[in-house]
Specification:
mainly beta, 7-stranded antiparallel beta sheet, about 0% helix, about 55% strand
Length: about 240
């Protein structure tokens, strides 16, 4: 089963400094049919104006992954962590027992991010933050695991999260094909960060999503140069 979710169908909010589109219910956007996808709870498509951002605020018991599409985001938290994550790279925050953090765009132009929340397998874990550069050359025509908590993910270089899930990214040239197997009981949510493609024969445009379940394999063919981000979770 594949459910195509066009960008124009997403919920959203415009606060001036922040233009947000929500794949799932979030903030003032509520849709009982879109409360999550398996363990995936939030996927926000955010555009943050230069010199603005999210002031310090708390989280707990959630795995929060930020994929930077354009620009950069600067993180600070009450654990003493501070870092700047650039386009194409990833940061993770395991909120666990509780963390207070801020996220600012200190760049001269708009920063665009995907913020992804995955429900943890264990409540009350020790909070953690990390960031890592992932050169796009390492994900040509294949999904590279950027953050994951499945067996082998950390050993392969992924940032660790407290969930049996994985956040992946791939780049494709026009006409290239990519195949990804899904084990029984697994689901996936794929978004085109750039370009258009087909997912098991279903067309998606830039920033559209494909929610996938009960499929043995995902076959993606790029219609033009494409950058894809996908989360695989327990269904």
């Amino acid at each position: 089963m594949i459910d195509i979710r066009p960008f124009k169908s997403l919920g959203g909010a415009d606060f001036g400094w922040l233009k947000a589109r929500h794949h799932f219910s979030f903030g003032h956007y509520r849709d009982p049919a879109r409360m999550g996808w398996g363990k995936l709870r939030v996927w926000n498509d955010d555009e943050i104006a230069a010199g603005t951002g999210f002031d310090p605020h708390p989280h707990r018991d959630m795995e929060i992954i930020t994929y930077v599409r354009e620009g950069a985001i600067t993180h600070r938290d009450n654990m003493g962590n501070e870092g700047r994550t650039e386009a194409g790279d990833v940061q993770i925050m395991s909120a666990g027992t509780g963390v207070v953090h801020s996220e600012y765009n200190l760049e001269p132009s708009t920063t665009k991010i995907f913020q992804i929340w995955i429900m943890p397998d264990v409540q009350g874990a020790k909070p953690n933050w990390g960031a890592k550069a992932f050169p796009k050359a390492g994900r040509e025509a294949r999904f590279e695991v950027l953050a994951g908590g499945r067996p082998g993910d950390a050993e392969a270089g992924a940032l660790p999260i407290n969930a049996n899930a994985a956040v992946m990214a791939a780049t494709l040239s026009k006409g290239q094909e990519l195949r990804h197997s899904l084990a029984p009981g697994r689901a996936a949510y794929l978004v085109s960060a750039k370009g258009s493609a087909t997912v098991n024969g279903h067309p998606i445009n830039e920033r559209d999503a494909a929610a996938v379940a009960e499929e043995r394999e995902i076959v993606v063919v790029a219609d033009d140069e494409a950058e894809l981000v996908m989360v695989e979770v327990a269904a």
